[in-house]
Write a structure and sequence with these properties.
By secondary structure, the chain is an alpha+beta fold. About 20% of the residues lie in helices and about 35% in strands. Strand 3, helix 2 (about 60-75) and strand 4 form a beta-alpha-beta unit. The protein starts with 9 loop residues before the first helix and ends with a strand.
Length: about 120
């Protein structure tokens, strides 16, 4: 299902509209995530991952909380994301729901397909 991936490549992550963070335990990279500005009031969670060895340790939640806090600090009213529908995405979807994200329609240039779903968090509350 790699043909359905919507992750940013290195040039996308280095664009002026994107900010990328990493989480380290000692000298081991255990997670990363990015925030991409879509417009003055809307941003997107991009390329969020936790290393397999770090899953279940809170790394994903730490990254997501940091991205949400930064989005609020920057004054965005809405934070959205696109993720997959395969069973391997269930833990991430559960994390997003626990942070207050709700299902939404496709945003930006995304197109709906059986392989993706969209979620959004209202930051104005």
């Amino acid at each position: 299902m790699g043909e359905h991936a919507q992750a940013l490549d290195a040039s996308g992550l280095s664009a002026p509209t994107a900010t990328f963070w990493t989480v380290w335990q000692g000298d081991m990279l255990v997670g990363f995530g990015a925030l991409k500005q879509l417009d003055d009031t809307h941003a997107e969670v991009k390329s969020m991952r936790a290393a397999p060895a770090a899953r279940g340790s809170g790394v994903g939640r730490t990254i997501l909380q940091h991205i949400i806090a930064e989005a609020r600090k920057r004054g965005y009213a809405r934070l959205s994301l696109e993720t997959g529908t395969a069973p391997l995405h269930a833990p991430a979807v559960s994390l997003y729901r626990s942070a207050g994200f709700l299902r939404c329609d496709p945003f930006a240039d995304y197109q709906a397909s059986p392989h993706n779903q969209f979620m959004s968090l209202d930051l104005s509350r």
